[in-house]
Write a structure and sequence with these properties.
Elements (H helix, E strand, L loop, with lengths): L12 E10 L2 E7 L2 E2 L4 E5 L6 H7 L10 E9 L2 E2 L8 H7 E4 L10 H11 L5 H14 L3 H4 L12 H13 L5 E5 L7 H14 L4 E5 L3 H7 L2 E6 L2 E7 H6 L4 H7 L5
Parallel strand pairs: 4-9, 4-10, 7-8, 8-9
Antiparallel strand pairs: 1-2, 1-3, 1-5, 5-6, 10-11
Helix pairs in contact: 3-4, 3-6, 4-6, 6-7
Amino acid sequence: MTTKFVHNNHAQLDTKNLNVYINGAQILKDVNVSIPKGKITCIIGPSGCGKSTLLRTFNRLNDRVEGLKMNGEVNLGDNNILEASSSKLSEVRRNIGLVPQRPCPLPMSIYDNVAYGCRIHGIRNKKKLDSIVEHYLKAVGLWEEVKDRLKNPASKLSGGQQQRLCLARSLAVEPSYLLADESTSALDPISSKKVEQLFTELKKDYSIVMVTHTLRQALRIADHVIFMYLGEVIEEGSAEEVFHHPKHELTQEYLNGAFS
């Protein structure tokens, strides 16, 4: 049976008994999580616990990892993403976008960076593309800074500007979910604060899942928290519950700085 993926901003994202192996080593163990709509979900835990692997499994970005095997379910609505054929991955990633750890503008102009995904999905009308580029550059607070140099290479922007450009590029295809893999870790404090503020504003229209090593950042912006340890989800719940009333002793130890 062919799995059909359609663009759906109302589809629920969750996992059921998700296991991931790389070269025989189990990286994720029976992960069951449900990502709430219209909120910022922060995935926290010590280095090597599987945070980024989980995040990148949500839209199959781990597929090219040598020795990768997966079983279980990653569901977007009624569709198991793990069953999507290679030809359907473009639509999966349109629904679930990613802002990378480090700014990675494409080797083209500022304008073409934002328009890139739209063109892939069939938008060719210049007036429509102009409108999309302006709208999403405004959405990330970059329009006033670049409106007179849209044809300039994106590589000429500062690191913080490049990261906001990458965010605009992800938003331009109107995803339902936005994944952020430590997206402020390579930025200076001022640029990092701008991106955090953007995420807080954007959750009105998008569901955001963010991996962070910084507990203070999670405390500032998280609505929902997933705490992982050694490939397992130890605790999941609202930020209020996990940070102030943790149910698991391991969660409390991590929050108290016993390990990192």
